[in-house]
Amino acid sequence: MRARRCVASATESNSVSFKELLESWRESASAPRTARRLAVHLPLDEAAQLAALAEMFPGRTAEQLITELMSVALRQVAAAMPYVAGKRVISSDEQGDPIYEDVGPTPRFMELTRRFRAQLQGAAGGARGERAATAPKVSRRSAPQRPGGKTRRRAAR
Question: How many Å apart are CA 79 and CA 94, to the nearest integer?
Answer without folding.
Answer: 23
